[in-house]
């Protein structure tokens, strides 16, 4: 039964307050921008083209479906973030509701999810960055432009820009949350400005005839696109990982979660509507890596396409920053609980950051992005995220039943209906992913179970307290 041993919510909160750990710097504004920084990036600048080829102008509905799955999950996250304001996100929530084994599985899943998110986005970032360099007549040698086999007909060995940007972000995160917060806030405002400029310019070039037929591949195409563009929402849950660095987390965390998700959903719908209104969806084929730039080029606004490249570079940088930040905080919490070696949860005396784990995970993520093509990474990120959303929705139902009187700064409405809808929607989107994605996901979970039963179970802090 020790597989289901659970942590006390009150003990978690008390230990968090008493420990000389992470520095509390983040307000509602910072948390909202943290969420937007994580959400808007590769999705809006890259995956909108891929989604349009599957759904046509119906891509707008695909974003609504994916957004609804996130919205129901966000309400569950908001309740937990206000109730258990401790670092670790859904890993910690699972520990207090479903027990240690479930917590380990979801923690192991989150480490993979965020790591691959950083790797996938770094590859997309590299493409836009090299496009920008090319405008100035600067080109890298083929061997350093992309991962092996990523460019047909070219001998590529290592994606150098992808690796270097992850190393730069790792350095920033290792130096402190205050510095990271400032950089993220500035970059988020820049990319929102670029997106709003696209909306203001693009709206004058819409041809309503391009929206016909609205759903050329029917509901199947819309749902398939929803499963793909779900990647665009990856990251709003990263806000909950900032629990121990947020001021008044019971109030600020739920607001940061919901505000960022709402703002991004509106921007996604507007951008996809304008983009498919300017360009007939079949024309995105072969241009999936820069669909927004393509729309402006067709509109005759080539001068502004360069701004889109800059916005994409800035946008993807913030996505990597927040994803790597969230990943390190989950691993930090797991290490503090004894499920990973204690070395990973050591806090730097000067910077007050989990310095060791930040560099280890940053280097691994950088190498994956440099050596593995992006197309082999993205779907695996989606399945890990959807699985996490299902677990947090189940946990809300369980905690309401087991501890109904626990103080909650925010209460998810209509429990268990809302969490149940979240579970159904996320499970449906998971069913739309390819079998190879499922196979890779199950292999990763199997490796995690081996580590748990050979190391984590006996080194668990709960196991040590029981022995005493």
Q: Describe it for me?
A:
It comes from Polycladomyces abyssicola. It is globular, with a radius of gyration of 21 Å. The protein is built from 17 helices and no strands. The chain has helices spanning 9-18, 28-39, 42-55, 59-83, 90-97, 100-134, 160-175, 177-202, 218-229, 249-278, 291-298, 302-336, 355-371, 378-402, 417-431, 435-459, 461-467. With 468 residues, it is mainly α. The longest helix has 35 residues, at 100-134. The chain has a single domain (2-467), classed as Up-down Bundle (Amino acid/polyamine transporter I), CATH 1.20.1740.
SSE blueprint:
Elements: H1 9-18, H2 28-39, H3 42-55, H4 59-83, H5 90-97, H6 100-134, H7 160-175, H8 177-202, H9 218-229, H10 249-278, H11 291-298, H12 302-336, H13 355-371, H14 378-402, H15 417-431, H16 435-459, H17 461-467
Helix pairs in contact: 2-8, 2-10, 2-12, 3-9, 4-9, 4-10, 4-14, 4-15, 5-6, 5-14, 6-7, 6-12, 6-13, 6-14, 6-16, 7-12, 7-13, 8-10, 8-12, 10-11, 11-12, 12-13, 14-15, 14-16
